[in-house]
Amino acid sequence: MTLEKVFAALVNEGRIELTGDSVLAKDLRFHGIEIVGDEARLPKDVRLLEPKKILERLRPEASEWLSSLRLLAHVESTNQCLMKMAEHAPIDGRVLIAEVQTGGRGRRGRTWISPFGRNIAMSIGMGLACPSSGIGAVSLVIGLAIAEVLRTVGVRNVELKWPNDVLIEGQKVSGILIELTNHSRPVEIVIGVGINIGARGLLMKGVEHEVADVADQIPDLSRSVLAGEIINLVHLYCREFERFGFRAFRDRWLDLHAYQDRRVVAVSGSGTIHGICRGISLSGALLIDDGEELIELIGGEITIRKG
Fold first, then answer.
1. Is this structure's pTM higher than 0.90?
2. CA–CA distance, 131 with 11 (Å, rounded to integer)
3. Cβ contacts of residue 184 below 8 Å, gap of 6+?
4. 57, 94, 107, 223: which is the annotated catalytic residue?
């Protein structure tokens, strides 16, 4: 029996009899599944994603743009799945959401853990009518969209960390992974979004640092409602980014910047920079004042932490 078969059965039936496979049972517990005797059960606190509810939340312009919405019980990576689709057909307007990812990815190849039914694990295919050289700031725009959706539903103390993390009270609650599928116009990208919603207890068993969780503040938040609102704002902001570039978002991003005018350490392959963070440029570069000059960091393998 495979993880995929078990997750599908949990979505369809709420339970499945196992075959005494202790390794499989251990994997299922890691992903937040209840094991009672030889039976795997859908946890009582998990409410499955509802496609109808997601579609009902869409604004007319987002609904018109959407070409397909697929809800999956299990996938290794929603981004990887959509990237494979892009090899054969346009992906603009395609959205994938999974109850669980077993091979989710973050920046720099890191693993993004998403327990079953306690997260948003979403990938959005988006076409952009701008040159591929101009999309470097898209991850900041998407981060702003996620932060503003969370604030709209009532989450407090939401902040942004350059280039693609959303924080609650200084701890990461959401990560974004942008992948380019082609360099021609219109450019198509895959926008990967991961958000913790009821996952923190499980995540703390597998990560070495503190994480935040939306459900700590809003325990009854519907993931389906949240997914619909994310699609709305991501679509809207991408259309605005096509027309106006990052300058239309910069001030709002800075309003939520966790490290604005604070001492930071930037670590990259070329060395370490100590200084005071002075915000971001109109192109989306991070600005650090090291006492002698204002240095622009433009992505790549860079880690930012408090000084």
1. yes
2. 41
3. none
4. 107
Locus of tokens 């021609």: 184
* C-alpha span between 184 and 163 (Å, rounded): 24
Per the structure block, which two tokens stand in for 72?
């999956």
pLDDT tens string 124-142? 999 998 877 778 899 999 9
Task: For 44-102, give the DSSP string.
Answer: TT-----HHHHHHT--HHHHHH--EEEEEEEES-HHHHHHHHHTTS--TTEEEEEEEES
Fold category of 259-306 in CATH: SH3 type barrels. (2.30.30)
Of the residues 108, 262, 305, 306, only one is catalytic, namely 305
Tens digits of residue pLDDT in 32-76: 899 888 899 998 889 999 999 999 999 999 999 999 999 999 999
Tell me how far apart the alpha carbons of residues 248 and 252 are, in angstroms, rounded to a whole number. Answer: 8
Phi/psi-derived region of residue 261, left when phi > 0, alpha when psi is between -120 and 50, beta in every other case: left
Residue 64 sits at φ, ψ, to 5 deg, of: -65, -35
Q: Which of 172, 200, 223, 250 does the annotation list as catalytic?
A: 172
Numbers of helices and strands, H then E, in the chain: 9, 15
Q: Do 40 and 16 contact (CB within 8 A), yes or no?
A: yes
Q: Would you call 172 a catalytic residue per the annotation? A: yes
Distance CA 83, CA 2 (A): 24
User: Where are the chain's structural domains?
Assistant: 3-41, 51-254, 259-306
Which amino acid, 12? N
107 is catalytic: yes
CA distance 176 to 79: 11
Q: Which CATH superfamily is domain 51-254 in?
A: Bira Bifunctional Protein; Domain 2 (3.30.930.10)
- Contact in structure between 114 and 177 (CB atoms under 8 Å): no
Pair of tokens at residue 173: 């609650």
